[in-house]
Specification:
single chain, alpha+beta, Jelly Rolls, seven-stranded antiparallel β-sheet, about 35% strand, membrane, D-mannose binding, L-type lectin-like domain-containing protein
Length: about 325
């Protein structure tokens, strides 16, 4: 009889669902989504990625980056998850670098949460008329007066609407912000996209100073419909035209978010859900400890059962020898 592994016993007792990482709100915890997380060296021993596909002009340097496009004209590259992102609430943190030799540069790259995957096209290297969410990091200004570039914007695609290429997405914009200094920044450049179903979609950027996040936008579901498909893939793509840039992906970190307070599904007081204070916090703490103790009892019961089974098996095995 093979003894169960520790991870199997934890899963049996339900303790494997305990948080791995702490979110920035006391009422929200996170579990790492390994299937949508990527970091150096990016590739397995057979020079493939277990969880991501890549194509087009994408080049992978295992010790440094995934380069979607090099600083050369007319390039397109993409990177897409192999399995869909099915978490109800999630956060994606992306580290990237946009840089090149020339003062004139373009066009930019996109972060996708879409029903379609791994299809090259005219929208920052990926397909047009997509269904889902596109976040565009646009570095070249075509025709959009009064807006400073680089410009970061979100578009919610319905599967039939065309991206407004001539006006840098003005007709499609869900929300956005100017981010001067995003290209060739002196600190690691990052984007953090947070989604809580039926509550909000938020994008934060780091490019001014390290560990300092600037909110680009926050869209509330009560004001605007956020129609992310229930089965959607995480992807990245980039494109260069006559002007070019290096569009490098350094790492992707994805987390499944959940609320530890069952009575609130948001991020606490900032999103319309009151946080427990003083004596009102005691019932929640008591409930959490009771649940933890219940899981602990299940864990020890599982270990005891496994040990008992192993002992019986060993006794029978010895008896069979005679």
């Amino acid at each position: 009889m093979r003894l169960p592994s520790i991870s199997s016993l934890l899963c049996l007792a339900g303790l494997a669902s305990l948080p791995v990482n702490a979110y920035d709100d006391e009422n929200v915890k996170s579990i790492s989504l390994r299937t949508h997380t990527l970091s150096a060296p990016y590739l397995d021993s057979d020079f493939q990625s277990r969880w991501f596909d890549f194509g087009g002009d994408t080049v992978i340097r295992a010790d440094k980056y995934i380069r979607l496009t090099a600083d050369r004209p007319s390039q397109q590259g993409w990177l897409f998850s192999r399995v869909p992102l099915t978490a109800t609430n999630w956060q994606i943190e992306l580290e990237f670098e946009i840089h090149g030799e020339n003062n004139l540069h373009g066009d930019g790259f996109a972060l996708w949460i879409t029903k379609q995957r791994a299809t090259q096209g005219p929208v920052f290297g990926s397909t047009d008329r997509f269904e889902g969410l596109g976040i565009f990091f646009d570095t070249y200004k075509n025709n959009r007066p009064g807006v400073t570039f680089p410009y970061v914007m979100a578009m919610m695609g319905d599967g039939s609407t065309t991206y407004d290429q001539a006006h840098d997405g003005k007709a499609n914009e869900l929300a956005g912000c100017s981010a001067r200094g995003l290209r060739k920044a002196s600190v690691p450049t990052k984007a953090r996209l947070t989604y809580f179903q039926d509550k909000f979609l938020e994008l934060e950027l780091q490019y001014r100073s390290e560990d300092s996040w600037t909110q680009c936008f926050k869209v509330l579901a009560e004001d605007t419909k956020i129609a992310i498909p229930s089965v959607a893939y995480l992807g990245l793509s980039a494109e260069t035209g006559e002007l070019s840039d290096n569009h490098d992906i350094i790492s992707i970190k994805a987390d499944n978010l959940y609320s530890v307070n069952r009575n609130s599904g948001g991020r606490g007081a900032s999103d319309g859900h009151s946080r427990s204070r003083g004596g009102s916090k005691a019932p929640h703490e008591k409930s959490s400890w009771s649940w933890f103790l219940f899981k602990a009892v299940l864990l020890f019961a599982a270990i005891a059962g496994a040990y008992l089974g192993w002992t019986i098996y060993r006794t029978r095995a010895r008896s069979s020898r005679f």
